[in-house]
Amino acid sequence: MPDTRPALVFDRELILKYDKPGPRYTSYPTAPHFHENFQRQEYIEEIQRTNSIHQPPPISLYIHLPFCQSVCYFCGCNVHFTKDRSLGTRYVERLLAEMKALSPMLHPQRQVIQIHWGGGTPTFISASVLERLFNGIQEYFNIADNAEIGVEIDPREVQPEHFDLFAQCGFNRISMGIQDFDPKVQEAVHRIQPEKLTRSVIRRCRELGLESINIDLMYGLPHQTAESFQRTVDRIIDMDPDRIAVFNFAYLPQMIKHQRALPKEALPVPMEKLAILEMVVRRFQEAGYLFIGMDHFSRPDDELNRALEKRTLYRNFQGYTTQAGCDLYGIGVTSIGQVGRCYVQNLKKTAAYEAAIDQHGLAVFRGVQLTDDDLLRRDVITRLMCHFVLYKKEIEDLHGIHFDKTFAGAMEGLRPMEEDGLVSLYSDRIEVQPLGRLLVRNIAMHFDAYLGRSAGKARFSRTV
User: Taking the model in full, what pTM does it have?
Assistant: First the structure.
């Protein structure tokens, strides 16, 4: 098997050549191709179908807790900004009702092997209410003893009672946003988060014995330079998290109104953004972190890296994960599920979601049924994005196709990338080279049959 762990190679000229908007491929087809003609009954029938097969897949649960007390101007998440914390109590009751509606459709022996609470800010909601939520998950689902249980926290919001709850309920993964420690950047993006506070939260997570701590950073924010952001990067390295995600800020003020509050003139110019990214790659690799894919780094002993080595790494709406082969059930407002041969998304507005749950028990807004061609292309794209290598015979055996004939156009489209050293095209495999790993989205795009269609005109972030 080709070595999957050589150091990432940064080539500014090639990045400039290939950098353009493109999907992140947390799904295929991507979310712009979900449609509102998808009906609640189609979702129910797909649940029933996957539940009745000989060996139904295990379950992953994503619970969306959308509330935040204040707006971070860079944020592109589905968030409900409010200071009224009573809304969280009412909302959790609807989450419990949605789970109660789903539970009878699932065979009781199907185990939940992954749970993730995202947001928003889950810790906006009090620990006592979150305890009721977790008790409901235990009541309605069969949780595996070794389940991966994670939560996103905001160091500015988390309380001692939250930590007590996480320890009591067996949470083993914590993710927290930092973005940048520079005071000038924090002021510009309306997120004041002192380094001392963040360190104390990480220290408490370590005391609780949490298996994995993930840190989120963001480059391309106002007032950032390679020099200033390196100070943040070096402090993160000193904190020694298990995983680090460094996201490229997508400035989309036409779509995300609160981004208009950012000082546009202070955003780093494209060449400075590239200098920041180059510094990030260099510093994290020098510190011993390994590049997992796109914008993620991990310590060598982390599960993500072991999954990359074994070619079992997977990608879904939660990003990179070691829990491949699950049916993913999205619970809560705007959550997206991946069940069998369909994707399904809940209503996007909290009030509409709650009303639908009260009326139907489910809150389906849109979705898509996957064709055989969708499943084939999703498999190809996922393997390239997650493993950096694809063996043609594996695809041929699973999908009953002749790879080079089926993907003749894609293979021809990859020739210029091969000439540039980004990818190697062999008779038996496609192998992404270290030079092409930052551009793996561009490589995957050659296998996307939807790009260029009407829904494909949706705005995507840039590939680097």
Answer: 0.93
